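Quick start: what a row looks like.
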Amino acid sequence: MTATPSEPTSSPSLNVSSVARDELDDERVVEPVIETVNLSVYYGAYEAVRNVDMVFGKNQITALIGPSGCGKSTVLRCFDRMNDLIPGARLTWKITYHGQDLYAPDVDVIEVRRRVGMVFQKPNPFPKSIYDNIAYGPRVNGWKVSNMDDLVEEALSRAALWDEVKDKLKDSAFALSGGQQQRLCIARCIAVEPDVILMDEPAASLDPISTAKIEDLMEELVKTYTIIIVTHNMQQAARVSDRTAFFTAEVDDEGERHGRLVEMDWTKRIFTNPTDQRTEDYVSGRFG
């Protein structure tokens, strides 16, 4: 994927996160980690996402919400350059990571994907042991780890999985339940010490108990990492996120759908007093 410049009423009550880490009357994101400026994403000639400006703050959980086909996952995949793997994919204008152009010619894509990790909707453990799933990242990156056992234990502990698997580390990762596999994938991600964790509907295929564990885990991980999550679950977005971005899909005169960012704000405001009627309609269940 290459980047090229271009021209620059209340909803039903939800259990909204308290946003204790930031005050609602402060509009600023004090420590931006990722920013997009007039971002548009194309697959060939088709413009999938149009003119998106966003800021993601350090140690915050940001939820991307909106109906299917509005570009949430497309935008998410830009942040670790996963869209590079899709033939014909390109973006216009800019994404910055700590102020650096993420798509500059001299940027090491492998290093980007180490610093910006991804957890997918469906758990995808490697066909290896639990231990080797965690050790794989440091090994393939050529790290000189003095004690791999300690690294594996720390990653599994931070993913709230150690106590459940410490006696079966040599067992296949496929022997774990779906929820355990997803937490294993989170542990594998944090084993290479990322700065940002992207989560594309990480609980969509899980039962309510496993979903609650993933949400509790996010609340712990955000103390160390910046988290961006795509979710179709309004209650989940309200429970776990500090900020929320609402996307929708607009249809042009030719009948093509283009993803657009409607608004991005503190989660409490998005769910209780959004500025755009389309957001109000979506979070209140009138459409989507």
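That is the whole record. The chain has ten helices and eleven strands. The radius of gyration is 19 Å.
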